[in-house]
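Side project, low priority. Logging it here so it doesn't get lost.
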Amino acid sequence: QVQLAESGGGLVQAGGSLRLSCAASGRTFSDYRMAWFRQAPGKEREFVAVISRNGGATTYTDSVKGRFTISRDNFQNTVYLQMNSLKKEDTAVYYCAAGLVGGQLDNWGQGTQVTVSS
Protein backbone atom coordinates (compact mmCIF):
# COMPACT_ATOMS: atom_id res chain seq x y z
CA GLN A 1 0.00 0.00 0.00
CA VAL A 2 1.00 3.56 -0.63
CA GLN A 3 -0.31 6.47 1.40
CA LEU A 4 -1.34 9.61 -0.46
CA ALA A 5 -1.85 13.16 0.80
CA GLU A 6 -3.16 15.93 -1.45
CA SER A 7 -2.58 19.63 -0.93
CA GLY A 8 -2.83 22.89 -2.81
CA GLY A 9 -6.57 23.29 -3.14
CA GLY A 10 -8.34 26.54 -2.42
CA LEU A 11 -10.55 29.30 -3.72
CA VAL A 12 -9.62 30.93 -7.02
CA GLN A 13 -11.35 33.19 -9.51
CA ALA A 14 -12.32 31.93 -12.91
CA GLY A 15 -9.37 32.19 -15.26
CA GLY A 16 -6.90 31.69 -12.45
CA SER A 17 -4.48 28.87 -11.70
CA LEU A 18 -3.76 26.39 -8.95
CA ARG A 19 -1.22 23.63 -8.56
CA LEU A 20 -2.23 20.55 -6.64
CA SER A 21 0.32 18.24 -5.08
CA CYS A 22 0.00 14.67 -3.92
CA ALA A 23 2.77 13.30 -1.71
CA ALA A 24 3.19 9.55 -1.54
CA SER A 25 4.77 7.41 1.13
CA GLY A 26 5.04 3.79 2.11
CA ARG A 27 6.07 2.06 -1.11
CA THR A 28 8.33 2.69 -4.07
CA PHE A 29 6.65 5.63 -5.77
CA SER A 30 8.01 4.86 -9.22
CA ASP A 31 6.25 1.49 -9.17
CA TYR A 32 2.90 3.27 -9.44
CA ARG A 33 1.07 5.00 -12.19
CA MET A 34 -0.63 8.05 -10.72
CA ALA A 35 -3.92 9.74 -11.51
CA TRP A 36 -6.13 12.62 -10.53
CA PHE A 37 -9.88 12.36 -10.19
CA ARG A 38 -12.48 14.87 -9.08
CA GLN A 39 -15.96 14.85 -7.63
CA ALA A 40 -18.27 17.81 -7.92
CA PRO A 41 -21.25 18.26 -5.58
CA GLY A 42 -24.04 15.89 -6.53
CA LYS A 43 -21.99 14.17 -9.21
CA GLU A 44 -20.02 10.99 -9.48
CA ARG A 45 -16.26 10.92 -9.23
CA GLU A 46 -14.69 11.43 -12.64
CA PHE A 47 -11.28 10.83 -14.15
CA VAL A 48 -9.12 13.90 -14.81
CA ALA A 49 -5.63 12.75 -15.78
CA VAL A 50 -3.16 9.89 -15.45
CA ILE A 51 0.62 9.65 -15.76
CA SER A 52 2.84 6.65 -16.32
CA ARG A 53 5.46 5.48 -13.88
CA ASN A 54 8.31 7.38 -15.49
CA GLY A 55 6.18 10.35 -16.53
CA GLY A 56 6.60 9.66 -20.21
CA ALA A 57 2.94 9.15 -20.98
CA THR A 58 -0.08 11.16 -19.93
CA THR A 59 -3.80 11.06 -20.67
CA TYR A 60 -6.45 13.67 -19.94
CA THR A 61 -10.18 13.88 -19.98
CA ASP A 62 -11.36 16.08 -22.83
CA SER A 63 -12.70 18.87 -20.63
CA VAL A 64 -9.25 19.70 -19.20
CA LYS A 65 -7.03 19.16 -22.23
CA GLY A 66 -4.89 22.21 -22.90
CA ARG A 67 -5.60 23.64 -19.45
CA PHE A 68 -4.35 21.03 -16.96
CA THR A 69 -0.96 19.34 -16.81
CA ILE A 70 -0.12 16.28 -14.77
CA SER A 71 3.51 15.68 -13.84
CA ARG A 72 5.52 13.76 -11.30
CA ASP A 73 8.81 13.90 -9.46
CA ASN A 74 9.97 10.41 -8.59
CA PHE A 75 12.72 11.78 -6.36
CA GLN A 76 10.23 13.81 -4.32
CA ASN A 77 7.58 11.05 -4.45
CA THR A 78 5.05 13.62 -5.58
CA VAL A 79 2.57 13.99 -8.39
CA TYR A 80 1.26 17.38 -9.45
CA LEU A 81 -1.72 18.78 -11.27
CA GLN A 82 -1.16 22.24 -12.71
CA MET A 83 -4.54 23.78 -13.43
CA ASN A 84 -4.73 26.89 -15.61
CA SER A 85 -7.65 28.85 -17.05
CA LEU A 86 -9.89 27.47 -14.35
CA LYS A 87 -13.62 27.45 -14.91
CA LYS A 88 -16.49 27.36 -12.47
CA GLU A 89 -17.25 23.82 -13.61
CA ASP A 90 -13.81 22.72 -12.34
CA THR A 91 -15.09 23.18 -8.80
CA ALA A 92 -14.77 19.82 -7.07
CA VAL A 93 -12.89 17.79 -4.53
CA TYR A 94 -9.75 16.55 -6.26
CA TYR A 95 -8.31 13.17 -5.38
CA CYS A 96 -5.08 11.52 -6.35
CA ALA A 97 -4.91 7.79 -6.87
CA ALA A 98 -2.16 5.24 -7.36
CA GLY A 99 -2.09 1.85 -8.97
CA LEU A 100 0.48 -0.74 -9.90
CA VAL A 101 0.88 -1.56 -13.57
CA GLY A 102 -1.74 -4.10 -14.56
CA GLY A 103 -3.74 -3.41 -11.42
CA GLN A 104 -6.49 -1.04 -10.40
CA LEU A 105 -6.11 2.45 -9.00
CA ASP A 106 -6.77 1.22 -5.50
CA ASN A 107 -4.86 3.70 -3.34
CA TRP A 108 -6.61 7.01 -2.73
CA GLY A 109 -5.93 10.21 -0.90
CA GLN A 110 -8.43 12.15 1.20
CA GLY A 111 -8.96 14.86 -1.39
CA THR A 112 -8.47 18.60 -1.58
CA GLN A 113 -11.21 21.12 -2.32
CA VAL A 114 -10.94 23.37 -5.35
CA THR A 115 -13.52 26.13 -5.66
CA VAL A 116 -13.64 28.40 -8.69
CA SER A 117 -15.67 31.55 -8.37
CA SER A 118 -17.07 33.56 -11.24
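Brief comment: Residues 19 and 82 are 4 Å apart (CA to CA).
Revisit when time allows.
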